[in-house]
Amino acid sequence: MASAIITDANAFLVALLLLSLSHIPFSSSTIQQDFVMCLVDNSDASFPMDSSFFTRDLNASSYKMALETSAQNLRYLMPSNPKPEFIFEPLYETHVQAAVACAKKLQLHLRLRSGGHDYEGLSYVSEMETAFVIVDLSKLRHINVDLESNTAWVHAGASIGEVYYRIQEKSKVHGFPAGLCTSLGIGGHIIGGAYGSMMRKFGLGADNVLDARIVDADGKILNRAAMGEDVFWAIRGGGGGSFGVILAWKIKLVPVPETVTVFTVTKTLEQDGTRILYKWQQVADKLDEDLFIRAIIQPASKTPKSKERTISVSYQGQFLGDANRLMQVMQRSFPQLGLMKKDCVETSWIKSLMYIAGFPSTAPPEALLDGKSLFKNYFKAKSDYVEEPIPIEGLEGLWKKLLEEDSPLTIWNPYGGMMAKIPETETPFPHRSGTLFKIQWLTLWQDGKASEAKHMDWMRDMYSYMEQYVSKSPRAAYVNYRDLDLGMNGKGSDAREWGNKYFKGNFERLVKIKAKFDPENFFRHEQSIPTGLE
Ligand SMILES: Cc1cc2nc3c(=O)[nH]c(=O)nc-3n(C[C@H](O)[C@H](O)[C@H](O)COP(=O)(O)OP(=O)(O)OC[C@H]3O[C@@H](n4cnc5c(N)ncnc54)[C@H](O)[C@@H]3O)c2cc1C
Ligand SMILES: *[C@@H]1O[C@H](CO)[C@@H](O)[C@H](O)[C@H]1NC(C)=O
């Protein structure tokens, strides 16, 4: 049987593990023991315990490291948050199959993690089950770029930065349109949409997927043909953790020019900031599709030495072309920003992504390979979609709110272009034609529990102030900016409400597909797609 294939060394490690577990008088040790024995029986690949299995009982410090390394929101790593019984890091696809089969058999609740960037920690914390384990795919990160077919197979645990790196390693004129933050896990990122600086030209990451390999609740591996078009539709935007474990995506590469231009121009309120942002709202979705200009808005000191704060708006741009053509486009469409040739940096596609991600200009592309996050905080975030420009008085009211908070940040991302051409029902991601831009709301803090309530209150108050200015019925939201406040009422979480916000009319189709593909609701979390609606 399968266990016969494990090497002597592995058998020794498993024996050691079982021995050590048998001395621990907690019930969790039985769970671990049963799980490991089941894995050994079910997995036909060798099974090195020491590099794939982490529990507090065996080694508290390596367990802590395995749990925390990729977890992005420190708010979910506090002592009061429930912790997994153990963390399993599969080395082979068959390990994932075995983990699902064994969890099902032993009725263990799984959390799936690729890059750990979930805003509400859903990939590493469960508030709804007493015991849970993490299947962390970070060791399944192989990437195979094939220029001949213009495609790549990328394993779920790879970061998006690694994917970009592997593409440009083979060609300077191929790219992929996905997220800006390079440490995102490709597994959890694409499944919720995946937007980035080329979305206006090529759409989302999810719009550029050709095939996928997924492990279903029976532990079977299915490709597109085997899972069927309904499930293949659902996993291109329906959100992580609802349908199965994505092992890998087959993505379509897109053409990028050898010269890409980036810039950042900052305007404060004293520099006519409000009026320029008002203008940006009118043009950002209509610009040349090669141009993406996002607005990053936050409080800043009025002068270098002053304690008094103002609002600064940084316009960060990526243009798929050279600076001369960019200057012409800006002169024609958005002269109010006052972009000058000296603000423009001509560079390669990969360096333009690193610029936007916040790497220092001296960092080599190889820095993308260590997959480190440049962002780790206690934070709360929300999202909004805007269909009509927010009037000047609305912006002024928002400035007052932002100035009340310690470290708020809001990032406005332009839509239009290809985003407006793809029909709303093409994928579960429905925010297409009619959307001017998306807002991401953030507030960050460093002192943990101490000030959490204050910041959460601020966020909710600001969100309620903005209601009048953003999309209505539903007030839409981006599923990859997971927000557990949505749909919360006196009786708990109303799936219909958050479902409509994330997916609009596509939600009911997602529910039907879920009911057929995972009727026992094996893959679930606080906001997973339900098998039915009340
Ligand atoms: C700093 C930061 C920057 C961001 N920038 C962008 C951006 O530019 N563009 C954008 O679109 N989004 C962005 N996001 C949001 C991001 O796309 C989502 O958080 C996404 O879900 C992250 O995927 P992950 O694998 O890193 O996260 P994880 O926390 O590992 O997973 C997220 C969700 O997917 C599930 N999941 C994970 N792996 C799998 C799998 N293999 N199969 C099935 N389900 C799985 C998890 O259970 C969880 O529910 C950003 C987030 C952060 C924190
Ligand atoms: C526990 O894990 C840490 C970190 O991986 C390692 O340095 C240490 O040697 C381990 N201790 C034991 C007893 O295995």
TrEMBL record:
<dbReference type="InterPro" id="IPR016169">
    <property type="entry name" value="FAD-bd_PCMH_sub2"/>
</dbReference>
<dbReference type="Pfam" id="PF08031">
    <property type="entry name" value="BBE"/>
</dbReference>
<keyword id="KW-0560">Oxidoreductase</keyword>
<keyword id="KW-0732">Signal</keyword>
<dbReference type="Pfam" id="PF01565">
    <property type="entry name" value="FAD_binding_4"/>
</dbReference>
<dbReference type="InterPro" id="IPR016167">
    <property type="entry name" value="FAD-bd_PCMH_sub1"/>
</dbReference>
<keyword id="KW-0325">Glycoprotein</keyword>
<feature type="domain" description="FAD-binding PCMH-type">
    <location>
        <begin position="80"/>
        <end position="256"/>
    </location>
</feature>
<keyword id="KW-0285">Flavoprotein</keyword>
<keyword id="KW-0964">Secreted</keyword>
<keyword id="KW-0134">Cell wall</keyword>
<keyword id="KW-1015">Disulfide bond</keyword>
<dbReference type="InterPro" id="IPR006094">
    <property type="entry name" value="Oxid_FAD_bind_N"/>
</dbReference>
<dbReference type="InterPro" id="IPR036318">
    <property type="entry name" value="FAD-bd_PCMH-like_sf"/>
</dbReference>
<feature type="signal peptide">
    <location>
        <begin position="1"/>
        <end position="29"/>
    </location>
</feature>
<comment type="similarity">
    <text>Belongs to the oxygen-dependent FAD-linked oxidoreductase family.</text>
</comment>
<dbReference type="GO" id="GO:0071949">
    <property type="term" value="F:FAD binding"/>
</dbReference>
<dbReference type="InterPro" id="IPR016166">
    <property type="entry name" value="FAD-bd_PCMH"/>
</dbReference>
<dbReference type="InterPro" id="IPR012951">
    <property type="entry name" value="BBE"/>
</dbReference>
<protein>
    <recommendedName>
        <fullName>FAD-binding PCMH-type domain-containing protein</fullName>
    </recommendedName>
</protein>
<keyword id="KW-0274">FAD</keyword>
<keyword id="KW-0547">Nucleotide-binding</keyword>
<dbReference type="GO" id="GO:0016491">
    <property type="term" value="F:oxidoreductase activity"/>
</dbReference>
